[in-house]
Amino acid sequence: MAARRHAGERLVDWARASRDDARPLVWFHAASAGEGLQAEAVLRQVQRLRPDCQSVYTHFSPSAAGLAGRIEVDVADYLPFDLPQNVDRLLSAVRPDLLVFAKLDLWPELATRASTAGTDVVMVAATVSPGSSRLQWPARALLRPGYRAVAAAAAVSPEDGDRLVRLGVARERIRVLGDPRFDSVVEKVSGTSPTDPLLRFGAGAPTMVAGSTWNSDEDVLLRAFAGVRRAHPEARLILVPHEPTEEHLRSIERDAAAAGLPPARRLSASKEPGPLMLIDRVGVLAALYGAGSMAYVGGGFGRAGLHSVLEPAAWGLPVVFGPRWSNSRDAALLLEGGGGVALPRGGAAEAAAALESQWVRWIADDAGRRAEGGRAREVVERGRGASARSAEMLVELISSRSPRTSPSAGRSVRQSVP
To answer: Based on the domain organization, do 200 and 277 belong to the same domain?
Structure first.
């Protein structure tokens, strides 16, 4: 809330000082870090094709603040609340040619008022899960005007396109172009240095990297790891909680001790690998997957949803996850491609037994594990190219627009936007 409070003022100040009406401007909005990475992949391609464009990036979640600090745009900041007075002042100041929403987080006031002002409203990486609350009453009725304002939508799949139509996007404005996240994860993995010190934590031993875990995941993982170590005492587990708070970390340490496991080593206090590594930092998971022989992705036991399975797959690791994966298209692709395994529904004991069995099999059958990891990487490779296709769609829209005939620098813009 504190960071958001004066975001509107900062954006208006930038526009008053730096908006060049002789250049087109593309405004990307991506709510959080995941959507931000998808947006960034497309944005880079737009900048390559149209280096004359100005670019704005906004977000709403604090998880994207780090990305906002490093993304190469003219200005990046939080987006103020979706209220008419905020929206009108920002649009009057920024004067975007394109307003691009990543994934599904389309703001109805911003979208409808931008369209009325002559801005093309666009969606990229557009995906709608079958169980999305936006498809239900009353959300669908309330949000429909915003989706009707969409001039073009790059859907991830045909099924996503059908659900966008249900939300209000005109079918003729939808193109199925794939998911830019595939390009993003490959770029991230390729950018990890072979000398990154994080990679040494998996050297010399079969290592499971468990990323973005919650309590329910950790219960299953620790039970399974205790069994795995009886057969393979050299095995390692790198545990990366989704929320590495001190309270959560201490809880994991207590549970590990109760399971008879060696004391957990925290990343911040250890330079050498141990049987059980507990990661107490954020922002290192993508590189840590490179230390693994196999991967577990959290979120498949709760209601928050399965986290991204693409990063470990891009490293060429076979991936295992909990039974609640049906809203994850990427997980379905891994299962179909033979690069992923879903644990059975039931209690924690049943899931732990299944995970232990799979874990032991991967350790015992190194060639089979590598083959499954290779198939996971193939799934990622087949998904590449969506960023370039989406960027080409945006550039087409920019090129089809009439140039601004009169600068708007003289417009009256109120400096204070809540």
So the answer is: yes
